[in-house]
Structure formats: C-alpha cells, structure tokens
Write the structure tokens for this entry.
Amino acid sequence: MSSVEEYNMKLDVIKGITDDQLKETGSIPIGIYIQEAEFLYTWCQDDKEELIAKGLDWTLVEELPVRCGALRHAESTWTRERFNREEAEKLWLVESSKGYELRNVIAHHFYYAFREDITLINRVNAIMANNTHAGMIQGLYDLSVLPGTNLELLTQVGFDLTLLNQAAQKADELSPIYAAATRDREDFSTVKKIRDQAYTHLKEAVDRVRQCGQYAFWRSEDRLKGYRSNYLRRLRLKSTGENTEPGTTPTPAPAPVPEPAPETPTE
C-alpha cells in the first residue's frame, strides 16, 4: 500500500483530531520520527505476548505502518506547499519592485504629457492612489490603456510608447506570481494542520507502545533499548559531552536513570 493510500485511509480519523489534542513535532525531525516508528513496529513483534499481557492494545502496533505512511504523505505535501510558496514569495519581492518602478516611470511621463487635461490627470491620480499590491498590478493595466486616442500628447514629450505594452505584459506576469505568493492562506494553513494531526495520530500509537515496553522490560536493557528514541539518546550523549568514539576509554557512567514514560495523548 502506498503512502497516498495510507493517507486517504486515515484522513477522516486524522481530521477528527481537535486543536487541543495536537502535539508539537518537537526536536525529532519528522523523517527520523517515522523511521523510529517503523523500527518500533519491527522491534516489538518478538514481544507481542508480553506486551499484550501488560495491557497493550495490539491493534496500535498493527496500525503503526499505516499511520507512518499517512504522516509521510502529509509531511511531503506540507513541504511541497511550503517550498512552492516560499519560492513564489521570493520571486514576488523581486518582480513586484520592477512593477512599482515601471508604474512610477509611466505616471511621471503621464503627469507632464497630460498636464493640461484635468480629466486625464484625475485618472492618473486615481490609479496612483491605490498603493496595494493588487492595486499596483491593476494600475499597470489601467496605465497601458489610459492614453487611448491621446497618444500624440505622449509622442510630443518623447515618451517611449513601448512602455505601454511593457506595462500590460508586466501586469500579466505579476498576477500569477502574486496569486501564488498569497494564495489561499486558509488552505495553506490547513495543509500544515493536517500534517500536525497526522503526527499526533502516529505519536499516540508510538507513545503507548513505548510506554508499555518500558514498563514490561524495565529490568531488561536488551529489550528496553528498543522502546526508546535512539535519536534523543544521541542528543543527550552529545549534550553531556560523552565520548562514544571507538578507541577511547570511556569514563565509568553512573547508574542509569529510567527514562520518563512518554506522555499519553488525550483521548
């Protein structure tokens, strides 16, 4: 089964997770978290009887691969949307400045060429008064057609008539870029929320399986280690400066402190 199919299978359940139930993604990258959840699924197979005897609902284990697939697809969708929008925003910053500059240049020429026609001047004023981004784009369109039958007034002051076509072309170029940079903010937020809901759904199962495993094998380090996050363990070792490189003599470590049980997500 593909990640897309697993995502679609779980989508209704995922969307049913409320805002107050959402869990922060924390310090573990999503990709690594999924890998650890997949490892957990494999690791706990040998402990099935012991875990069930301690009260674990085994369907949580059986669902781990599907929940992993759902989160993988949700994360991929969120990453793609975020990248596309970030790229559009960068492009908009560059191209919009060109649009504003072109609008200002054309308006400068119009104000002089049309100085004796109050009607045309008022129309230029109205165009320039709209300083929103959308107004700038529309303004380029409007300026490109404003001269109408008054092109002679522009040629008399040496105005480059090709700027009118450039204005219309720039407006055509800017419209889709602006739409991409600002598109559907609500939909954009929804994509991230679904990713967070999918993470919460997976974390619920991972936490419960790990919690039961840590309870069942609290005196069996060989089995217990599979119910802990290896990524977090490496972070702790790094933060404490412990040297784990081969060829060194490690300082004797103090008695291990039991890892706190994972937080049980709200039902």
